[in-house]
Design a protein that fits this description.
Strand order of the largest sheet: 1-3-2-4-6-5
Bound molecules: uracil
CATH superfamily: Uracil-DNA glycosylase-like domain
Largest sheet: 6 strands, mixed
CATH topology: Uracil-DNA Glycosylase, subunit E
Helix content: 40-55%
Oligomer: single chain
Distance between the termini: 61 Å
Number of strands: 6
CATH class: Alpha Beta
Number of domains: 1
Number of helices: 11
Radius of gyration: 23 Å
Strand content: 5-15%
Length: 262
């Protein structure tokens, strides 16, 4: 492999090979793995002489969820929370992501929208919902006089359960969700919305502990001390346009709720 290749280029090359159907990783020259290769001598130790035993320090065990709770609790504002997430080392997803996708829209908006995780476009740009699903989300919001670029009563604030793109857009693992939940709950507390919209199964599961968006959508529930309405994810609506009818009903319900609680 070209030794000048950076991490992202190497990953893109691997993804391309996967898309082409590559299932085996073999090199051009065979390697005899049965051949015993002597380890290089340690610096300052003559070959054949064993090095003096160095006492092994036990690595302190950390609970990544507890660490996340501490880091999230220490954040006093949204900028501090973003910095705490950037410094959090335990979630493997960060290694494969180009950007930490934190938020878009207006903090302090009455409505906070919570998606699942960044996709390819969001990872590239560093903002949530900027791909095709995001464009549909913007049109859905505009239909009820809301938007991430609006000021005042029509503004919204947007984030995701996970700030890093999972490889190949796979579903997040339970351990990854558990690590990032303290950050999400702190995010909600600092953004101070009046109500939450959770989009799709993953966000619904993260905040309400339940799956089955087809059954749960449109039913107001409570999470993080706030009213929550689960809705179909815009990416699902792109694949299943017939479900837009239900999504429209949920948007009207959201609009009615905002009007009655002003
Ligand atoms: N899907 C999501 O759930 N979030 C995004 O930011 C983009 C796509």
């Amino acid at each position: 492999m070209d030794s000048q290749m950076d991490w992202h280029a190497a990953r893109a090359a691997l993804e391309w090979q996967l898309e082409m159907g590559v299932t085996e990783a073999i090199s051009e020259t065979p390697i005899n793995r049965f051949e015993q290769v002597a380890p290089p001598p340690k610096a300052g130790v003559a070959p054949g002489v064993s090095a003096p035993a160095v006492p092994v320090q036990p690595v302190p065990e950390v609970d990544p969820v507890e660490e996340a709770e501490k880091a999230a609790a220490s954040a006093q504002d949204l900028a501090g929370l973003k910095a705490a997430m950037q410094a959090y080392p335990h979630c493997e997803l960060r290694k494969g992501a180009r950007n930490l996708v934190f938020c878009d829209g207006v903090p302090g908006s009455r409505v906070m929208i919570i998606g699942e995780a960044p996709g390819r476009e969001e990872d590239r740009v560093g903002k949530p919902f900027v791909g095709r699903a995001g464009q549909l989300l913007d049109r859905m919001l505009a239909a009820i006089d809301l938007g991430r670029d609006r000021e005042g009563a029509g503004s919204v604030y947007i984030t995701n359960v996970l700030p890093w793109r999972p490889p190949q857009n796979r579903d997040p693992k339970p351990v990854e969700m558990a690590m990032m939940m303290p950050f999400l709950l702190r995010h909600i507390a600092l953004a101070k919305p009046e109500l939450l919209v959770v989009m799709g199964n993953i966000s619904c599961h993260a905040l309400l502990g339940k799956r089955g968006i087809t059954r749960l959508r449109g039913q107001w529930a409570k999470a993080a001390g706030l009213p929550v309405i689960p809705m179909f994810h815009p990416a699902y609506l792109l694949r299943n346009p017939a479900a837009k009818r239900e999504a429209w009903a949920d948007l009207l319900d959201l609009q009615a709720r905002l009007r009655t609680t002003t």
